[in-house]
What we know:
By secondary structure, this protein is α+β, with helices and mostly antiparallel strands. It has helices at about 50-60, 145-160, 170-195, 200-205, 215-220, 225-245, 260-265, 350-360, 380-395, 425-430, 440-455, 500-505, 510-515, 520-535, 575, and strands spanning about 5, 25-30, 40-45, 45-50, 70-75, 80-85, 90, 95-105, 120, 140, 245-250, 270, 275-280, 320-330, 335-340, 365-375, 405-410, 410-420, 470-475, 485. Helix 6 (about 225-245) packs antiparallel against helix 8 (about 350-360) and helix 11 (about 440-455) packs antiparallel against helix 14. The longest helix has 26 residues, at about 170-195.
Amino acid sequence: MSLCRRGMKRSPGDAEGCSFPAGPGLKVFLHWDGQQERERCRVYSQGSLSAEEICIDLARAIGISPLCFSLFALYDPQARLWLPPNHQFQVGKDTNVHLIFRMRYYFRNWHGMNEQEPAVYRNVPRPGDSLEEKNPRGALLDKSSFEYLFEQGKFEFIHDVASLKDLRSEPEIQRFKNESLGMAVLHLSHIAVTKGISLEEVARKHSFKECLPRSFQRQLRGQGPVTRLRLRRVFRRFLRRFQRGTVLEGWEREFPSLRELLDVLKGCTLRSGEENFTVRRCCPPKPGEISDLLITRKAKDDGKQILNLTQLSFHQIRKDEITQRAHLGQGTRTNIYEGVLSVCGNSGNDDEAEYFSTEQNNNGREMHVILKVLDPSHRDIALAFFETASLMSQVSHVHLAFVHGVCVRGSENIMVEEFVEHGPLDVLLRKEKGRISVGWKIAVAKQLGSALSYLEDKNLVHGNVCAKNILLARKGLEDGSAPFVKLSDPGISFTVLSREERVDRIPWIAPECVRDVGNLSTAADKWSFGTTLLEICFDADVPLKERTPSEVPLPPLWAPSPHFRPHPPILGPTSLF
């Protein structure tokens, strides 16, 4: 029988990552991860062996049942060939052959997530499974085959069977990255299930970067420290939410100590009959308590809507981690300062330690930041201040300024934000008035539209889009250079502004929001976007000031009614300039 050629294109992962021992022999790599002490490579030193005999030997060692023996074969990564069962090896002292033991066939719906295709079932049904309900066309795999298939798929995924460098369009790249992060969660979840520990504990011990394709890892290493930190925090936040979705109806596992049990329970959901309870804090039982599990609920005031603090999410920064420096100006009910953020002592977080140690232009583990301090006379709106910090902490986009977290220092509430080197856009526009090209302005408009489109896709409203809230990370005024901007946080939540403060924001504020803050929506951000485009067009002059309607080329986003304001990206250069 002739050798079977593999129909797949060459991937750098064909042999990469396969560790073969030195010395002679026929060596077969096994797709096991490094989490358990298992044989990674089997060496055959001498004799006459067929490929089928080797596959059966390996399948038995792994625990694969005879029913599934024929699904596996030997693969030569150098020649990119599948070896037929009757291929003969004469193994001697001069033999040095490297092969991989792999499942030969691909089952399109092996994970069972596609209801339109037959699922792949286990050989032995699990309790509660009904064989009559299963599609008779579905293939059968035993538990060991499933586990090996998972490890094989994970290996190929990490070693770039699909590579980021092969993608060209931005939507394809973003989809690849999002799905890669989802696969990283699956990878860590598998470790958690295998070891019987919580997902958060696994995430503390294993970096999510180890679970990403190599091409994605290389790109991350080339990103700025702020981008890498933002990605880590977004990933950890997703893991916490994912963990909270885990429902426990019964647990047969034993724990060596009460502390280990409490650590695993945090973030899980307990079910009692039809009631589900999310565990937010675990405390040992006190003497005299009848039950080891007490569930407390906070009373709700039906006559009053209060912002639920459990809905807010941001990184809490200790007061000894920030140093306040020069006063830069004022925002709405806030004072803005230059500052330094540092990690004091052992933070216990390797991600933050790596971030600060690699940040450029810093002093060891310090970095330049902006401190937005809420005026102590407005402590009554602290929740609205935290709401803004929560919003900006939960978004991740290259054209949105990064919020590191919030610090409560005595009576002061401080938002700690990324320092963007060249400051507000309106200042530069006035300074370079009449000397900035149309192409430069179009580039800034596109970047702002990209950030607002991202927020709209998440159904989030910014509420304070204007040139002074657009920060310049790169001026891009030199030949061959391009600007790079970031939209800053909106400041105090729009919902707590007085009518006078809302009037002061005319013409950036949408007309329907002046009278009623309840009208704030993504359509209002489109109005602000259109107004800001006019502001950019006229070099930071207040839009419409001392101009008649006939003198102003109104873009379509500036429609008086929110029902007629289109999506920002459809705005073309000719409609503005």
